[in-house]
Amino acid sequence: MIDEFPRPARVQAAALAVAAVAAAGAAAGTDSGWWLIPEAGCAFLAGGRPGRARNTALALAAVVAAAIVAVALVPAWLVWASRFTGLVAAAVVPWCAGRFLRQYRELVRAGWERAAQLEREQDLLAEQARLRERTRIAQDMHDLLGHELSLLALSAGALQLAPGLPREHRAAARDIRARAGAAVDRLGEVVGVLREEPGAGPTELEDLVARSVGAGLDARLRLEGDAAPGQVPPIVERTVHRVVREALTNVAKHAPGHRATVVVRHTKARTEVRVTNVPLPDPAPGPATETGAALAAGEAPQGGQDRRLGLAGLGERVRAVGGAFVAGPEGGGFGIRATLPHRPPAAAPEPRPAAGRLGRSAAAAVLVPLFTLAALVTGVRVWDTVAARQSVFAPEDYARLRLGQPRAEIAPHLPERQTARRPAVAVPRPPDAACEFYVQTADPFDDRSGDLYRLCFRAGLLVSADAFDPDTDSQEEDSP
C-alpha cells in the first residue's frame, strides 16, 4: 500500500515491491497462491513505516475503483475477481498488522520518554525548591544576624567613645566595631551570591568579551536587532550571558589558535546567539595558549559550575527557558547556536490517551480487513449476478438445439452477451470451431448456479453443444 513516509526512497521501494509481487502472481495464472506470501511480507513492512493511514485508504479505494471500471469496460475480466480479492486481502491485512505493531512500539517508547521527562522535571523542581529555600535562609540570616551585628558594632562604637575608658580597652572596642562591620559586609556578599543573578545586558557582554581578549583570546562581539531597552526578559539575558561565556571558555580551552565571533541578535519575539570559531591564518604563540587558564581563573566566581556542566548542561539551560540549542562542527571550526524566545512557550495540548489510540488501531487492524473483504465479496457477487442475467441461455432453448443447425436460427434465442466464466478444467473443442459460453441460471440459490453451456460453431453450423458443472469439473451432457 502506498503511504506518506518521511523517507520517499524506502516508500517507493516498498510500494513497488508490493505491486511487482502482486502483478507477478496475478500474471502467473496459478491457483497455488504462492505469490501471496511475499506480497504479505512487503505489505507488513510497508505498514511498519510511519505515515498517515488516510493515504493508504485513498490508495486502496483508487485500486478498487479502477478494478470496477476495468470490469465494467471488459466484462471478461470478471473471472479475475477472486484473484483480485485475494490480492487485496494479502495486502490490507498484513499492512494493518504492521501498523498496529509500529504504534505499539511507539507507545512503549513514548512511555519511557515520558517517564524520563517526568524524572527530569522532578529533579528540576527539587533543585529550584532547594535554591528557593537557600535564598530564604540566606535572607533570614542577613536580616537577623545583620541586625545583631549592626547593634554590636553600634555598641562597640559607643563603648569606644565612653569617657574614662582606658586606652587598651578603647582600642579593643575599636577592633570589635571594625570586625562587626566587616562581618556585616561579608554576610551581604554571601547572601548576594545565593540570590538570583540580575539580567546581563549588552554592557556585561562587552565586558565579558573584553576580559576574554585581555586574557589572550581573539574574540569579537557584534550586537544586532531592533529590540527596545528592557524588552528582553532578564532570564533571557542571563542565559545569553552564560551561552557566550561557555562558548568563549571552550574556544580558549580547546582551540586557542582560533578566532571567536559572537553575534547576538535581539528581536521583539526572540534572541538569537551564535558563537563560532575558525582557525587563524597564522596563529602567533603567546598568551592565547593560556587563555583557558586565565578565563577559568577570572570567571570562576560567576561560571565555574556552568563550565563543568559543559555543552550538555548549557543545552539544558537553553531548553529550560523554551529555547533551541545546537552545537557542532561548522566552517572548519566549531559553532554554538541558541534561540531564546522572549515569552515562554504555550503549554502543550493535553495528549490523547495513548491506550485509546492503540485500542482503535487494534480494532482497525481487525475490522478494516473484514469490512474490506466483505465489501469486495459482496460487490463481486452482485456484479457477477448482474452480468449473469445478461448471459442466461434458457434450458428449454438448449433442449431444442440440434447438431448442424445454422447459427442464424439459434441467434434469436441466445442472450445479449456471453459469460466470462469458464470450466475449471479445459475441455477440448472441436477442430476449427468457435465456441460460446452461457450460464444456465442467474439465481445464486439455484442448484444449477454456476453451470455452463458451451455452443461450438463451424462454418456457421452448430457442431457441439455441451453442459458443464464447474463444481465437479465434468461434462454433464453431450451434444444433443
From TrEMBL:
Keywords: ATP-binding, Kinase, Membrane, Nucleotide-binding, Phosphoprotein, Transferase, Transmembrane, Transmembrane helix, Two-component regulatory system. The chain crosses the membrane at residues 12-37, 57-78, 362-383. It comes from the Bacteria. Pfam families: HisKA_3. Signal peptide: none annotated. Residues 133-197 form the Signal transduction histidine kinase subgroup 3 dimerisation and phosphoacceptor domain. It is an enzyme of class 2 (transferase). It catalyses: ATP + protein L-histidine = ADP + protein N-phospho-L-histidine. One of its GO terms (molecular function) is phosphorelay sensor kinase activity. One of its GO terms (cellular component) is membrane. Residues 277-304 are annotated as: Disordered. Its EC number is 2.7.13.3. Residues 287-304 have a biased composition (Low complexity). This is histidine kinase.
